[in-house]
């Protein structure tokens, strides 16, 4: 059992034939240099991979490829979680729909010094009803509540969790991802089509 | 008069992109940034300041020369797929693919790129990983994997979100408990 990519060495490498395999993905968005790659690198075991995509609407022209970085971690022997860096915002349709379609949700890294960089991403997720959390990039505890108050003042829905996150620290990244998934689960419950099934929480809206 | 001459010169420069590109390239070589660059005042200098090489590669002037190599490889990659950009099988970028018994048995008789995919997928890989590791554009990788799935060479493990909807609650619960164990 010298397989190093799994955190379940006693179970062997993930996905021997016959085992049910599935995957999920989370999008990591935010401005340039805010720490998206660092965030992903902290939680996946291996280095990030880079995937290229052609902007579909310009496929006939000579154009530069969109590069999308991502990492993958096995959460259990049959479940691979992919973390994708959101493609550049200058070309939102290029590879973008592939990345966000079917995602659990998104983590928007938020640099307090450059708040405008993250607004595009937040607006997109709001408009498309994709659950997301705002991860403040390592704000000092003394001003954290002030920053949160300012962010709430920006008109972000009070449902959106705002967490502090140091992208270099694995535990901190894990906390942000757990917060996101819990938020997404709740969001999913609220959007359930029918009231027939038993819900742990009363539907809010 | 002089402005007309400038306009003429600019037009001429625009008509000879290769010449301009080369000049830009030479301007981009900042061998010693400490020393101030002196330029003869009489020479017709471009309006733009000379910039380091890296940003200039993104300038549109370069498009005629530089991207030929990636472009050619894209053309070759699309030739593999017969020009198709869509697969019959619904593949998301995170969809897992794994080699199966049939692909192991027919190891010697596969096309080279199919063989490559089979080797990659001995342990399950996502479509995104196949695209990244084979250095193929995502669309090409999707068609390639889709073709192989149709011929039974690889198993496709459908994601819970296939169909464009959000993942179901069971999957989210699994993600959550998996994250907590990390």
In words, what does this structure look like?
Chain B: It holds the Pfam family DUF742. Chain B: It comes from Lentzea xinjiangensis. Chain B: This is DUF742 domain-containing protein. Chain B: InterPro entries: DUF742. The complex is a heterodimer of chains A (205) and B (182). Chain A is of the alpha/beta class and 205 residues long. A seven-stranded mixed sheet of chain A has the order 2-3-4-1-5-6-7, sandwiched between helices. In chain A, strand 3 and strand 4 form a beta hairpin. In chain A, helix 1 crosses helix 5. The longest helix of chain A is centred in the last third of the chain and has 21 residues. The N terminus of chain A is likely disordered. In chain B, strands 2-1-3 form a three-stranded antiparallel sheet. Chain B folds into two domains: 65 residues, no CATH class; 89 residues, Arc Repressor Mutant, subunit A (Orthogonal Bundle), CATH 1.10.10. Helices cover 49% and strands 5% of the residues of chain B. Chain B is mainly alpha-helical. Chains A and B meet through strand 1, strand 2, strand 3, strand 4 and helix 5 of A and helix 4, helix 7 and helix 9 of B.
């Amino acid at each position: 059992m010298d397989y190093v990519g799994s955190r379940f060495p006693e179970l062997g490498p993930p996905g021997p034939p016959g085992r049910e395999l599935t995957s999920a993905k989370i999008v990591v968005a935010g401005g340039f240099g805010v720490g998206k790659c660092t965030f992903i690198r902290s939680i996946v075991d291996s280095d990030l991979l880079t995937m290229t995509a052609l902007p579909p609407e310009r496929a006939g022209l000579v154009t530069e490829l969109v590069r999308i970085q991502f990492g993958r971690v096995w959460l259990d022997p049959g479940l691979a979680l992919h973390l994708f860096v959101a493609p550049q915002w200058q070309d939102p349709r290029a590879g973008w729909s592939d990345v966000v379609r079917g995602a659990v949700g998104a983590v928007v890294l938020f640099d307090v010094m450059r708040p405008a960089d993250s607004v595009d991403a937040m607006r997109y997720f709001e408009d498309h009803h994709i659950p997301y959390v705002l991860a403040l990039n390592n704000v000092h505890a003394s001003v954290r509540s002030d920053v949160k108050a300012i962010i709430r003042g920006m008109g972000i829905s009070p449902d959106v969790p705002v967490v502090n996150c140091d992208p270099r620290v694995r535990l901190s990244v894990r906390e942000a991802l757990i917060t996101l998934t819990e938020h997404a689960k709740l969001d999913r419950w609220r959007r359930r089509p029918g009231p027939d099934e038993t819900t742990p929480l009363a539907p809010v809206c | 008069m002089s402005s007309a001459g400038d306009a003429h010169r600019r037009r001429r420069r625009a008509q000879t992109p290769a010449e301009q590109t080369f000049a830009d390239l030479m301007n981009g070589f900042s061998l010693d940034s400490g020393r101030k660059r002196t330029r003869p005042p009489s020479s017709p200098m471009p309006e733009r300041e000379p910039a380091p090489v890296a940003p200039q590669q993104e300038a549109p002037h370069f498009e005629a020369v530089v991207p030929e190599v990636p472009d050619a490889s894209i053309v070759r990659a699309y030739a593999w797929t017969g020009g198709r950009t869509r697969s019959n099988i619904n593949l998301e970028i995170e969809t897992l693919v794994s080699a199966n018994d049939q692909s192991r048995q027919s190891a010697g008789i596969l096309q080279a790129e199919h063989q490559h995919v089979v080797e990659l997928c001995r342990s399950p890989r996502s479509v995104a990983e196949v695209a990244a590791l084979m250095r193929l554009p995502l669309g090409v990788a999707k068609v390639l994997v889709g073709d192989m799935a149709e011929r039974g060479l690889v198993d496709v493990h459908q994601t819970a979100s296939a169909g464009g909807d959000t993942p179901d609650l069971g999957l989210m619960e699994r993600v959550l408990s998996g994250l907590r164990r990390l």
